[in-house]
Amino acid sequence: MKTALGVRRRWRQGQIKAALAALTLLVVAALAATPALAAPAFKVAPRTLGFGKASPGATKTFTVTSSSGGILLVTASSSSPSFSVSPSQGVIGSGQPQTFTVTFTPTKKGPQSGKITVSGGNTTINVMARGNAQGTATATPTSTPTATPTSTPTATPTGTPTGTPTGTPTGTPTATATATPGPGSGLGSSRLDLFRQVW
Predict the structure, then answer these.
(1) CA neighbor of 120 nearest in space, from 90, 95, 100
(2) What percent of the chain has pLDDT over 90?
(3) Max CA distance (Å), the chain
(4) How many Cβ atoms sit within 10 Å of the Cβ of residue 82?
(5) How many CB atoms are located within 10 Å of the residue 119 CB?
(6) In Å, what is the CA distance from 127 to each residue of 5, 14, 41?
(7) Cα–Cα distance between 127 and 102 in angstroms, integer?
(8) Facing residues of 107 across strands?
(9) pLDDT per residue over 118-169, tens digit each?
(10) Percent of the chain scored above 70 by pLDDT?
(11) What is d(CA 129, CA 103) in angstroms, rounded to the nearest whole number?
């Protein structure tokens, strides 16, 4: 009886060990099939920008640095018109950080908040911006007024023309005079002869 009992115990222990070995294999296989979580491609500091009581045009900055050692293109965009970010993208690498500038551009007075989203590779990080606007941003005119003249100047010539016309008329005038004795011319001659005789 003791021998049979010992055999049963050893058999049960063997079954437990086999079950534990099979379970271990299953866990290892599951872990191997699960993709590893990728490390963040970059880091952002600071993650919060507090403008406090500020007027339009106030600025704050944050810096993006590579955490993978490789070169990466990152983009930045704002979810709120009260905060603008520039540049919109930059290249980071090992020892080559990129600084972004956030400008406070409130459209109304009072507390404002917004979110700056920075993306690149397999990483997306949000930077929160907050400020209490003491005024509003003013619009810049997009065109310049031009003046149009309302009258057209006119000029009147003054002065007297000077100079003497020059030139000699050419050609010879021609005319023929013809005398015809009229009636009584003979009588006048006779009287003259009579006068001469009397004298």
Answers:
(1) 90
(2) 41
(3) 230
(4) 24
(5) 17
(6) 70, 58, 16
(7) 10
(8) none
(9) 999 889 999 999 999 998 866 554 555 565 555 555 555 565 656 555 555 5
(10) 54
(11) 10
- The encoded tokens of residue 86 equal 């520039």
Q: How many angstroms separate the CA atoms of 172 and 6, rounded?
A: 175
Q: pLDDT tens digits, residue range 87-117?
A: 999 999 878 999 999 999 998 999 999 999 9
CA angle, residues 74, 80, 83, in degrees to nearest 5: 75
Query: How far is 172 from 181, CA to CA, in rounded Å?
Result: 29
Please, what's the b/e burial string for 85-105 (b: 16 or more CB within 10 A of its CB; e: otherwise)?
beeeebebeeeeebebebbbb
